[in-house]
Amino acid sequence: MRETADGADEAEEAEVTAAGAPATGHAEAGLLDGTDLEAVRRRVRTALVVSQILGGLGNATAVALAAVLAEQIGGSEAVAGLASTSSVIGTALLSLPFAALMARRGRRSGLATAYAVAAAGGVTVVVAAALRSFPLLLVGMAAFGASNVANLQARFAAADLAQPQHRARAISTVVWATTVGAVVGPNIAAPAGAGIAALGLPQAAGPFLWGTGVFLVAAAVLHLMLRPDPLLTARTLTRAREERHGSGTGGNGEERSLRAGLAAVRGSSRARVALAAIAGSHTVMVSVMVMTPVDLRGHGAGVDLIGLVISGHIAGMYAFSPVMGWLADRVGRLSVILMGIALLACATALAGTAGAGHAQSAAGLFLLGLGWSAGLVSGSALLTDAVPQHARAAVQGFSDTIMNASAGVGGALSGLVVAQAGYGWLNVMAAALLVPVAALALAAVPRRQPEG
Asked: CA-to-CA distance for 428 and 418, rounded, in angstroms?
């Protein structure tokens, strides 16, 4: 059974399958007047896919060695996780401001600006490596986290114009597009580092200089190609439907505020389950992933092997997302959320007991990515289903803030846990976080009515 949102999706489906929109005075209305909406969807999807490939390439190249760079500059394994954690915290802090920018000016402005900020963060990280300044490294990593804001919010941009019954697949297509850059990225880390080593900088800083250039290209692609803007176009269609039906639930800026988003979440139990699934999956994934390179290095793995393991992990995150989207549309969002929880539990069991078994570590990290994909795709679709269109931008920004703030705490503690108790106990604690998420999801599963 496919979960939907209180009958609102039926009205939306009629809205987005209309041939065009009547003139409403909005700048996007002229773009849809007499235009095939499916052609608009294709154009938007192409822009998002290209930018996701580039964004994945820039981000994954750097994240593979972020913990190593932090350990080299900070001088301790205990602070190694703080680099990626800083990036996650930066993503959390920047999610709401960029969501507000998108609510005012659309996805194009918000996504392109996020990549520009991430590029500035990459430059800051390289300067920090040159100065051996750990505080400046954390500042740069926080700004670098804006690339994740763009990466994550792009999935919601894909859902803006999608038909409700295809929403999870639309989200998963954009998530999948990150695969190309994300899998190739960690394997570019070594040559990118070799180039910067000639300047007397740590090899692990090279990928951040590479990421800066890639993010600038991604920002340019979005600025030029993401036309018409999917969020503004969706609002045009919403207003057109409201004019036909004489309603007016999504027409003013106040109703698109964070307060309206929080009210929408409070009013929907499914939205709360979706938030828990997204935040829980992301926290478990980040907490384990950020310390895996350090654990592998401690068991004799070199940069090339670390890059290969992280590539497999990222392949699990992105390559199978279309399967997760198809399943979420076919068998239901909650079923796929529960499947993701099971995959994450298996991942922590494998990774936490791997020791010097690099093949087992790789298998665990692959399943960790696969479970994350199931939770993110199905949770994002459920969240979009569960709230009305006028509140979605605010709810989506709030969702990404919660997921990254939670993961930031997990990542910050992960280095301390590994230093004090070991990598195995980190995986035990990560698995424990899945228990309340599973309980919420199970409680939301519709119960069959007894026959007769």
From this structure: 11
Whether the per-residue pLDDT at 16 is higher than 50: the answer is: no
pLDDT of residue 10: 43
103 contacts 159 by C-beta, under 8 angstroms: no
Report whether pLDDT(179) > 90: no
How much is the CA Rg of the chain, to the nearest whole Å? 21
**302 phi-psi bin (left φ>0, alpha ψ -120 to 50, beta other):** beta
pTM listed for this prediction: 0.78
The widest CA-to-CA distance across the chain, in whole angstroms, is 78
Sign of CA dihedral 281, 286, 292, 295: negative
- In Å, what is the CA distance from 35 to each residue of 20, 29, 30, 225? 6, 10, 9, 17
* Separation between Cα atoms, residue 243 and residue 228, nearest integer Å: 22
**Non-local CB neighbours of 256 within 8 Å, separated by 6+ positions:** 103, 250, 390, 391, 393, 394
The Cα–Cα gap between 244 and 91 comes to: 40
